[in-house]
Design a protein that fits this description.
Number of helices of chain A: 12
Number of domains of chain B: 1
Largest sheet of chain B: 6 strands, mixed
Strand order of the largest sheet of chain B: 6-7-8-3-9-10
Order of helices and strands of chain B: EEEHEEHEHHHHEHEHEEHH
Radius of gyration of chain A: 19 Å
Number of helices of chain B: 10
Order of helices and strands of chain A: HHHHEEHHHHHHHH
Number of domains of chain A: 1
Strand order of the largest sheet of chain A: 1-2
CATH class of chain B: Alpha Beta
Radius of gyration of chain B: 17 Å
CATH superfamily of chain B: P-loop containing nucleotide triphosphate hydrolases
Oligomer: heterodimer
Structural class of chain B: alpha/beta
CATH class of chain A: Mainly Alpha
CATH topology of chain A: ABC transporter involved in vitamin B12 uptake, BtuC
Number of strands of chain A: 2
Chain lengths: 296, 234
């Protein structure tokens, strides 16, 4: 059978998956732009977004939109707590230790979620039904459009916050030159605190959006976190636009690969893409030399 | 204005500053000179709260600021232009200046006034306002670093090796700016190896070697001192 006939449909699926990776990658970038910390608990925020929404609907009986909003707020609080309990006490430790601490936090969050909400996969209903739309022979479920729309909306909101507000610029300054930021009167720890909250919020929104499509469970965050990290590296480390581009590239490559190789190898494709980028363009597709030289 | 009392600073077992006591009075320009590795930069970083004090006290405008968080020290009016400039290369020149005013971001009218004054002092910063700061020349970056510190409206401005690595025309321009700022009432504390130039605009000076203050006095006397010249040139 000709594998190319599946490409348009796989491309559509890849774009949706890419949007989710882009949101996770944006979460990484928000924290990196305010500090030098790579938060490997980022995927857990996505998992929690879905799981906590599910809990608020089934356990607390809240209506869907309210449950989603409450879940995003709860995850933002968890992001703040992650900073206060894990990152802030280690603020004088090396970046490597901080990264390892976020790996530890990721395991704690994932297992606590299993303990509190159970290990069974959880699904949320689609926002506006599940009747697929036909566009030029490609079937698209409406939830995919929600994912895409929300990704672009969040990208522009984050772009505005990062590049058009003084707090956003102060965050970037904190990361590019911590000493310069200290001497400019920026409370860097507060900037990182804010970044963890915003990043958790973006992750949780991604979780609410994706759970109607792919389900979620306590252990879904790890792989999503890794894919988001790969997307951020592929697109150009430290850039919002890079995170979004990297997310879509990764989603599309991963999804279309199914036409040519067994679907079981799909996850490995992401890591092959990472290796290729690291070999041939380590600063990523849109990477800036400033970020390369200053941050790592 | 600034009183340092028996300040001791360690880097692990190494004593970087040994019982430093000095004063900078309102309206003065004071220079601290000394050879490489004397502890000059460590002293300024300690005053700004970046490096922790082992013993001793730092009083600024009669308040104890020893080991306060750096942003709190900046908010109290102690500005610091660090060695190596430490500007933010990825954002524009204008944004660098605005980030310098971060602690008083709500005082929009004052910020506009300060921006105008800084542009008068260093017109090139206005001309290059939209450029990424990382694309400026060394001299322009030093002007930006000074301008950024001034945006915090300091009462005392500390400058660490402001002439380091700059072309002579930039050195002339920034030292003329220091004189102008002092004339307008700003107290200035300069750390320099370029002793002739900095002592020439100073009222008093101190000499630091191996973490100890070994000499102090009026600037003209220090300029004349053979010991000081040998120490800083050798």
């Amino acid at each position: 059978m000709n594998p190319w006939i599946h490409i348009p449909q796989l491309l559509a699926a890849g774009i949706t998956m890419g949007a989710i990776y882009a949101l996770v990658a944006l979460g990484f970038v928000i924290i990196v732009r305010a500090s030098q910390i790579l938060n490997f608990a980022q995927g857990e925020f996505v998992m929690l977004g879905g799981v906590v929404t599910f809990f608020f609907i089934t356990g607390a009986g809240l209506p869907y939109p309210l449950a989603a909003l409450a879940a995003v707020l709860a995850v933002i609080v968890i992001g703040f707590l992650l900073h206060l309990l894990v990152v802030y006490p280690l603020r004088k430790a090396s970046v490597l230790i901080l990264i390892m601490a976020t790996v530890g936090a990721s395991i704690v969050i994932s297992n606590t979620s299993a303990l509190l909400f159970g290990t069974l996969p959880k699904a949320l209903p689609p926002f506006s039904g599940d009747l697929p739309l036909e566009l030029g022979g490609i079937r698209i479920v409406p939830q995919n459009l929600w994912v895409l729309g929300a990704t672009f909306l969040l990208f522009f909101v984050l772009y505005f916050l990062s590049h058009r507000t003084l707090v956003g610029k102060a965050m970037e300054a904190s990361s590019t030159d911590p000493l310069g930021a200290d001497l400019s009167g920026i409370a860097r720890n507060f900037m990182v605190f804010l970044a963890f909250g915003v990043s958790a919020g973006v992750g949780a929104i991604a979780g609410v959006l994706v759970t109607p499509i792919f389900y979620t469970s306590y252990n879904a965050g790890t792989l999503l976190g890794l894919k988001g990290f790969i997307a951020a590296v592929v697109g150009g480390w430290g850039k919002n636009s890079g995170a979004v581009l990297g997310g879509f590239v990764l989603g599309v490559v991963e999804s279309t690969s199914i036409a040519f190789i067994p679907a079981g190898y799909k996850d490995a494709v992401a890591f092959v893409v990472l290796l290729l980028i690291l070999y041939f363009r380590p600063k990523g597709i849109l990477g800036s030399p400033y970020i390369d030289s200053r941050r790592w | 204005m600034l009183r340092i009392k028996k300040l001791i600073v360690h880097y692990g077992p190494f004593m970087a500053l040994n019982k430093i006591s000095l004063e900078v009075n309102v309206g003065e320009v004071v220079t601290l000179v000394g050879p490489n590795k004397a502890g000059k930069t460590t002293l300024l970083l300690t005053l700004s709260g970046i490096v922790e004090t082992t013993e001793g006290r730092v009083l600024f405008q009669d308040a104890d600021i020893t080991n306060l968080d750096p942003y709190k020290i900046v908010a109290r009016g102690l500005g610091h232009v660090p060695q190596g400039r430490h500007i933010f290369p990825t954002i524009s020149v204008f944004d660098n200046l605005m980030v310098g005013a971060y602690i008083r971001r709500k005082a929009k009218g004052e910020i506009e006034e300060d921006l105008t004054r800084i542009y008068e002092l260093f017109p090139v910063l206005k001309k290059r306002g939209k450029q990424r700061a990382g694309t400026l020349s060394g001299g322009e970056q030093q002007m930006l670093a000074i301008g950024r510190a001034l945006m915090g409206r300091p009462n005392l401005l500390m400058l660490d090796e402001p002439s380091s690595g700059l072309a002579p025309r930039y050195i002339d321009e920034i030292f003329a700016a220091f004189q102008e700022l002092n004339r307008r009432g700003l107290t200035i504390f300069i750390v320099e190896q370029e002793i002739q130039r900095s002592l020439a605009i100073s009222h008093r000076g101190y000499v630091l070697r191996n973490g100890r203050l070994i000499k102090k006095g009026p600037a003209p006397a220090l300029v004349e001192s053979r010991e000081v010249q040998e120490l800083c040139l050798g």
